[in-house]
Automatic annotation (TrEMBL):
The gene is ytqB. Keywords: Methyltransferase, Transferase. It comes from Halolactibacillus alkaliphilus. GO terms for biological process: methylation. Pfam families: rRNA_methylase. One of its GO terms (molecular function) is methyltransferase activity. InterPro entries: MnmM_MeTrfase, SAM-dependent_MTases_sf. This is Putative rRNA methylase YtqB. Transmembrane segments: none annotated.
Length: 190
């Protein structure tokens, strides 16, 4: 059985093709931004968000070290995505990924919050292509994590099953609040 992070990457690899438009909603140290960049290639577009300058610096260095082109590294909340999305990319997003919680090795008080996460997901859902995918890796062991987890689950559970598949994937016998995946896939219209 795949662990949570490898499984999130598998889902991204199955969904993203060269030239696609994708979003890293929580850039952090840039591991996901790097994967997204490699998957979309030279002709694709990556929008990556974080509210900490350090994340942009780390990610820029990581992309450079892996010979990736410069990407749109945006110092702003993912909730403000519509202020940054080019009009030609409206309704054209193939995939987005969130890693919720705080950046390991950094300020643990800077965490993702229910309101901004749900606002970002709502905008992304609107601008997702048919067949597109949003992945949230939910870390919930820190203060505030349980609130974000519960609000998110309740919000995603209300998505119309005719339009979206919503998956929860994780291990239920691991200690210490194991992370899990919530994945939203936009279904073709019938
Ligand atoms: N995927 C990252 C990586 O590869 O290193 C790890 C992400 S870390 C778990 C969560 C990140 O979300 C932190 O860097 C934090 O600054 C960022 N964050 C918190 N609130 C945010 C918001 N409203 N918009 C964008 N990023 C946010």
């Amino acid at each position: 059985m795949k662990r949570v992070i490898p499984y999130s990457h598998q889902l991204l690899k199955e969904t993203i093709h060269p030239g696609d438009i994708v979003v890293d909603a929580t850039m952090g140290n840039g591991h996901d931004t790097l994967l997204l960049s490699q998957l979309v290639g030279e002709t694709g577009t990556v929008y990556a968000f974080d509210i900490q300058k350090q994340a942009l610096k780390e990610t820029e260095q990581r992309l450079f070290a892996h010979n990736q082109p410069q990407r749109q590294l945006i110092l702003d909340s993912h909730a403000n995505i519509l202020n940054h999305l080019s009009p030609e990319h409206h309704h054209q997003i193939t995939a987005a990924i969130f890693n919720l919680g705080y950046l390991p090795g950094s300020d643990k008080s800077i965490i993702t919050t229910p309101d901004s996460t749900i606002e970002a997901v709502t905008h992304l859902i609107t601008h997702l292509k048919i067949g597109g995918l949003i992945i949230l890796v939910v870390y919930h062991g820190h203060p505030g994590g349980d609130e974000e987890r519960d609000q998110l689950i309740s919000s995603l559970a209300s998505l119309d099953q005719k339009e979206f598949d919503v998956l929860r994937y994780g291990f239920i016998n691991q200690k210490n609040h194991p992370p899990f995946i919530l994945a939203i896939k936009k279904k073709p219209r019938k």
